[in-house]
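Annual report, structural modelling task.

Input specification for the magnesium ion complex:
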Amino acid sequence: MSDTLYIVVPCYNEEAVLPETARRLREKLEQLMGEGKISPKSRVLLVNDGSRDGTWSIIQGLHQDCPLFSGVDLSRNRGHQNALLAGLMTAKDRADMVISMDADLQDDINAVDAMVDKFHEGCDIVYGVRSSRARDSFFKRTTAEGFYRIVNFLGAETVFNHADYRLMSRRVLEGLAQFREVNLFLRGIVPLIGYNVGYVAYERGERFAGESKYPLKKMLSFALEGITSLSTKPIRYITLLGFLVFLVSLLMLIYSIVRWAHGVTVIGWASVICSVWAIGGLILLSLGVIGEYIGKIYLETKARPRFLIREVLEARDETAL
Ligand code: UDP
Ligand code: MG
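The model returned the following structure:
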């Protein structure tokens, strides 16, 4: 009668940390099963996002040794969000609740207990929220918090200081499956699904081993992706900007007519060249932002698959052992 939990973990070149993560996740599942909070059919689902190191063979080994582990191997590297989605969609039909977390042990595994409790209290989505970012580097902390502020200012509803550590019930995943967009930004989409929501605070640790798979370049493109796939406000601001610039030029016109009427003629080379540059810059900026959205439309109309699965290591039934 108890509910089945799947813990979905996207892994990209995580051979340094995966054995330890797997050990702790296994302990956690066994403890929760012992307490009767989750069914014995619960599993850890490891998604290999086209790793170039030994990650997939580690996953195969885990699957061999212990029935608690199953795995999904993607056809190639598709990025964190798509790998996570592949895992969630695979787990959807097998579980009553799914928790997603990173492979690097930055998300405190002990928060799982509280999430499962909240699920039993009737929550459909439980967000893991970082209580402090003291362990992150100053740079990571300021850029990440700035990102949340900008995204929310631009009209998306993301949960402050929440990454992809969350519990979702089966009906939430069924809702998620209906969001067909290719430009996927889960942190912005999940709040749009609704149902009963809960929060669990946890302390964000340091990466246990290996290095971050999000260098600055990826972080910037992730932020841009997040903003443009969730909100069209930037386009509206461009219209506003264009209007303001137009107003300024009207004022300038009036000003020069007045000056002319007073008989003060100025050879205004400097002001002309300045405005040419300013307007040119603004036009290019605006075209860039609009182009960004058109590019999105282009990709969406193609409706390419978001991930392709090479192989699924099915959860083995414990009774079959
Ligand atoms: N990840 C992935 N595909 C990628 C990049 C990252 O599946 O292309 C996974 C990675 O293995 C980890 C999670 O996404 O489980 C978060 O990555 P990371 O910890 O490097 O990001 P950070 O915590 O530094 O933001
Ligand atoms: Mg990390």
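The chain has a mean pLDDT of 83.
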